[in-house]
Design brief:
It is built from 29 helices and four strands. By secondary structure, it is an all-alpha fold. The strands form two sheets. A two-stranded antiparallel ribbon has the order 1-2. It has a two-stranded antiparallel ribbon with strand order 3-4. α13 runs antiparallel to α18, α16 runs parallel beside α20 and α25 runs antiparallel to α26. The longest helix is centred in the N-terminal third of the chain and has 32 residues.
Length: about 750
């Protein structure tokens, strides 16, 4: 059953892609024979991939719901990459498997309407289903190696979501997403091999006992940090969060809901596995996660507050909420056996955040598919008199704001109690974290209020009203039946879960406690005066921030303004320039030394001469001459290796991940280099009398050839990060060779 749940979506993906391929073929034949019926035929046939995807998602929902009713045995596939693949299921995995299936089904309900008239829809459904299977493979993984295999599959399949629209912003965000995924995956792989070497196993259930018996703490921490880099990057943890605020806005809204609600949780899954496995009672590790979580939580809230883009605000909000979860994991490590409240809070906030972002991104998708705009000044007032959209968005906003009576309040209360508990032991540092926690909660309320007031309360300005009226003429009905079902079905869970603190939420925390190695959570007085006090402080912070900062500082002349300087973009101001300057600076001198043999080759020649002199004294060079020849050959090999590797690495970085995406050139032909070279050839031809005066034959020819070359190579070099993909192929080949040698050597 586990194998079916992991591989069924992947099989369905292939089926959906094939159905789309044959549908397009029949549509073209219909167009040739019966032009009038061609559009109807194309439209009917193009629905097949959608229905296959929806049916597969519905079946997965049934299977994962059935997993609660009967025991599911673990499953192993041996002789795969030497270590094999190992799947298992427990309470935590059952819960998240069901959430994944539910979110996939709800986003697919909206997808048909959202993608109406879009290009490459079949591609989206193919990679959508492939990603569902991959992420289930991550959560059902019984060991870290299996988790990493499916984690990397998920990274590459979800990369296509980000680049789906193929705009300049989408290409740039997708390149960043892929770069972070590759770097993080390789770091995690290194850490997993260290654990395999130290323990002889990477099974998640056995990590805790192995770590207690391990005397080599340096190896343990090295492996832990490497795995944290890999999984933390996917979670959106500072300082590897740079992909998240850029990928979510450019991806289609159904994909954004899954990126935020599910894919980031696959990263959290890995962080929990090592934190509660290797470092369950380790205050040092807890302090590291606490610092990273606090910065992630606060920085994400600030970025969301300053954003004037609907989906970017929600994306930065996801980063902030990931910080809340990381703080819960940190307090679990700090408190050890007393960390039940923190563990339960982290577990429930994972669940709540997934469901909350499903509602909010679906609502954002409704706005975008009607207006094709996300700027707050353009979408202002769109939701007025749209009661279903308004109520659903409001339920999501109240939930993520931690308002009593909604699901976010339950998990944030447990997280707050965990911080207070840790503060009794660790003093002022945790007190400071508590106030940052409450302030971040206040900023959450402020930016969600900003979004709600903008979309549903404020009247559109003159320009925005004319724009929205024009859009409405093309789309009179703002949401179809399936869209209403998806929105309402997701939103109704917010108050239901929020009012069931000691029933549904308690049961969920109990099911997930074993994965966190925590005790069962007892009954809580969620609505006691002490717990309401924390929510009240955040509410006061939120009101003050909205009235003073948002209305007074972030608005000018009735318009929302972006006051965030572009120079504060961590990717553009630090990572790309640093890597572009640092790597050539390091490898350039290395290439000069080793590539041209300025040190090794003269040294080998000197050794050769010395060996010759010694030979005259000691004989026929039976020993020294072969040694000197070997050294010369070695210097040649080093020369080729270092020069080729350096050139390849610098070229790779400059042509793929670190390449800034710019719009196509707009200069006139006369200003292009190719045209000027052609002009020079024309002038030579005129002097020889072989060309008429005023002719620009070669100039125009060279310019056309250059344009053709650019057009042919644009997709390869810019949109698919071809060089980076080739590097992954090479690395995969190397890893397969290492695994083969390890297994059979």
């Amino acid at each position: 059953m586990l194998a079916l749940m992991v591989f069924l979506p992947m099989f369905s993906a292939v089926t959906a892609a094939l159905s789309g391929h044959f549908s397009r073929g029949r549509g073209r034949q219909d167009r040739d024979a019966h032009t009038g019926a061609a559009h109807a035929a194309d439209h009917t046939e193009s629905n097949a991939p959608y229905w296959i995807a929806l049916a597969s998602s519905a079946l997965m929902l049934v299977l994962l719901a059935a997993a609660f009713l009967r025991p599911v045995p673990e499953f192993r596939i041996s002789a795969v990459l030497s270590y094999g693949l190992y799947f298992t299921i427990d309470g935590f995995r059952r819960i998240y498997g069901l959430i994944i299936a539910f979110m996939w089904f709800m986003t697919l309900l909206l997808s048909k309407e959202y993608f109406h008239g879009h290009h490459n829809v079949v591609r989206y459904y193919f990679f959508n289903l492939m990603t569902e299977g991959a992420i289930l493979g991550v959560f059902f993984a019984g060991d870290l190696f299996t988790a990493l295999v499916f984690f990397e599959i998920m990274s590459f399949t979800s990369f296509v979501w980000v680049i789906q629209e193929e705009t300049d912003g989408a290409v740039r965000a997708a390149n960043t997403y892929l770069a972070i995924a590759v770097i993080g995956g390789l770091a995690a792989l290194f850490g997993i091999y260290l654990l395999q070497n130290a323990f002889g196993t990477t099974e998640i259930s056995g990590l805790y006992e192995c770590a207690k018996e391990c005397g080599d703490k340096k190896t343990l921490y090295t492996a832990g940090v490497c795995i944290l880099v890999g999984f933390g990057a996917k979670a959106g943890m500072f300082p590897l969060h740079i992909w998240l605020p850029k990928a979510h806005p450019v991806a289609p809204a159904p994909a954004s809901a899954l990126l935020s609600g599910v894919l980031t949780k696959s990263g959290i899954f890995g962080v929990i596995a090592i934190s509660c496995g290797l470092f369950r009672d380790d205050p040092g590790w807890g302090a590291l996660i606490l610092v990273l979580g606090t910065v992630t939580m606060f920085l994400g809230a600030v970025l969301a507050l300053l954003s004037v883009d609907l989906k970017r605000t929600l994306a930065c909000s996801s980063m902030s909420q990931i910080g809340f979860i990381l703080i819960g994991i940190a307090c679990t490590c700090l408190l050890g056996e007393e960390g039940t409240l923190s563990a339960s809070g982290a577990m429930l906030h994972m669940v709540n955040h997934s469901l909350l972002k499903l509602v909010l991104f679906l609502a954002a998708g409704v706005v975008f598919m009607n207006l094709h705009e996300l700027n707050l000044n353009k979408i202002r007032g769109f939701g007025r008199k749209k009661s279903v959209l308004q109520v659903c968005f409001l339920l999501g906003a109240l939930g993520i704001g931690g308002i009593p009576g909604f699901n976010g309040y339950i998990s944030k209360t447990l997280l707050h109690e965990g911080i207070v508990e840790a503060a009794h032991i660790y003093g002022w540092a945790l007190k400071l974290v508590e106030w940052i926690f409450l302030l971040s909660g206040g900023m959450t309320i402020a930016y969600m209020t900003k979004l709600y007031v903008c979309i549903f309360a404020e009247k559109p300005g003159k320009d925005a009203a004319a724009f929205q009226a024009e859009m409405k003429a093309h789309r009179p009905k703002y949401l179809g039946v399936f869209g209403h079902i998806a929105l309402i079905g997701a939103a109704v869970l917010m108050p239901v879960l929020g009012l069931s603190g000691n029933t549904l939420m308690q049961g969920t925390a109990h099911l997930g406690s074993s994965f966190f190695r925590a005790e069962e959570l007892g009954k809580m007085s969620y609505f006691s005066l002490e717990n309401l006090k924390g929510a009240g402080i955040s509410l006061l912070f939120g009101a003050a921030i909205y009235l003073v900062i948002v209305r007074k500082c972030l608005m000018k002349n009735g318009e929302y303004v972006n006051v965030l300087p572009a120079k504060l973009d961590l990717e553009d101001s630090v990572y790309r320039p640093l890597l572009l300057r640092l790597l050539p600076g390091i490898f350039g001198p290395a290439a000069a030394v080793f590539g041209e043999n300025k040190v090794l080759k003269p040294l080998c020649r000197w050794i050769m001469k010395a060996s010759g002199a010694l030979a005259q004294l000691f004989g026929e060079n039976l020993v020294l001459k072969p040694v000197s020849k070997a050294l010369v050959r070695a210097s040649g090999v080093l020369s080729r290796v270092f020069s080729d590797m350096t050139d390849a690495l610098v070229y790779l970085l400059s042509r793929s991940v670190l390449r800034p995406v710019s719009p196509p050139p707009t200069d006139e032909a006369e200003n292009s280099v190719s045209y000027r070279i052609g002009n020079a050839v024309d002038r030579i031809q005129k002097r020889r009398g072989k060309e008429a005066e005023g002719s620009h034959y070669f100039a125009e020819l060279f310019y056309r050839l250059r344009r053709t070359f650019v057009r042919k190579t644009h997709n390869l070099s810019d949109t698919m990060s071809f060089a980076l993909l080739m590097m992954i192929v090479a690395l995969t080949a190397v890893l397969l060779y290492v695994l083969f040698v390890h297994h059979f050597g």
